[in-house]
Amino acid sequence: MPLLFVLAESALERIPKELWKHPSVIKTARSRRKRPGSMLLDRSLHHHAMKNLPLAEKRGRPDIVHTTLLYVMGTPLNRAGLLRTYVHTVDDHVIEIDPTTRLPKNYNRFVGLIEQLYEEGEVPPGGPPLLKLRRETLPELVERLEPDRVIAFTRLGEPKTMEEAMRPLAPLGKPMVIVGGFPHGHFSKRTTSLADELICIDEEGLDAWVVAARAIYEFEKATGLTRKRLPKRKSPGE
Amino acid sequence: MPLLFVLAESALERIPKELWKHPSVIKTARSRRKRPGSMLLDRSLHHHAMKNLPLAEKRGRPDIVHTTLLYVMGTPLNRAGLLRTYVHTVDDHVIEIDPTTRLPKNYNRFVGLIEQLYEEGEVPPGGPPLLKLRRETLPELVERLEPDRVIAFTRLGEPKTMEEAMRPLAPLGKPMVIVGGFPHGHFSKRTTSLADELICIDEEGLDAWVVAARAIYEFEKATGLTRKRLPKRKSPGE
After folding, report:
1. Using the beta-carbon criterion (under 8 Å), do B230 and A161 form an inter-chain contact?
2. Which of A37, A126, A162, A175 is the most exposed, fewest CB within 10 Å of its CB?
3. Beta A149-159 vs A175-180: how paired, if at all?
4. pTM value?
5. Is A84 helix (H, G, I), strand (E, B) or coil?
6. B53: three-class secondary structure by DSSP
7. Beta-carbon neighbour count of residue A22 at 10 Å?
């Protein structure tokens, strides 16, 4: 403990310059009264604009980050202060999220918050920062955090149940779990080479939030937290 | 098997008549070119309008339904065809979701789909329906589905780990799990009286999607599905 959770190569970035003049981008910029370069790339709005973008299948899905973070930040492990959460993006930024952060549950507000984060470098701008953004590659992040073991989940890994994967991490001081934050495709070689172990938990590709949820839950179970957090009573109101 | 999953008293409804003339409602109606009565109530847009609404703390949160369904529909249990998913709403509608449905990952598209569902009664309008809507109370739904056991999760229930809660359901023919689809408060008496057992899994109130995720996962484990779905190989590409 604590567990370091990294959503890696996440499909989150600002709209790249080569798309600023595309009609769908101009349209969202006008209706939101923003500069194209200050908005997040979002396939649900910019699908056609993304057609000629390199590696397009791994880009433009901030909703994956949002849904996964909603899950992760709401776990008992995080509430107990035993989880550290990082979002590494496809264009090598890292967002560090304070465990006490209450993220917007609404998607549009989440997008607005992340856009503000890219403008300011941290949010909220006044008080102590809850989200911090820096330019950092995944190898740099791993080097900075110094985990004692790194496991990554990929369909190309060794088949193991999540319980088998997470139980060995429980006694460690600072284990790290890496889950892919993109809709299709596989980790880059740079990412897989960082992992001590590559693990496959299902015969089908699973959504990032499903993998994250199960990893965190099995870590809670393996460390005894699940049982420790049960209320000490037998019936209501006692 | 299968497991019946019910998100109950969910904070999902169309904007009620008494709010149609509120400025924030008129504003969203104009920008979306919709009638106020055909749009979903959403606290992130209609917070001020909701001030005098009865039971407001349990209403106007379609994002809770969206996030929970994203999780539920992506589980191996659902992909294996062993999960039946129902959304019961605070104003007594029931949405039945075909297990093969691929819900919009984007929140705004999800809202549009549910609004269309309320207009048409089922979607998509042409082909075989993936989502069906009917007027139905929770007692009526339970009576129609005839589960052999019903458990509901609430902080007022008996403290048990999720594993202890779900293991006894595995051998049953048609067990039902009820999770609250609202942000604050507790189930109504009408709901709790339907359950054979009320269970509390944590000392704090947890988000609907966290409870749903853990219930489904423990059911998978208890039925042996998790292990059965591991690929039959030892290393990549074999």
Report:
1. yes
2. A126
3. parallel
4. 0.95
5. strand
6. coil
7. 17
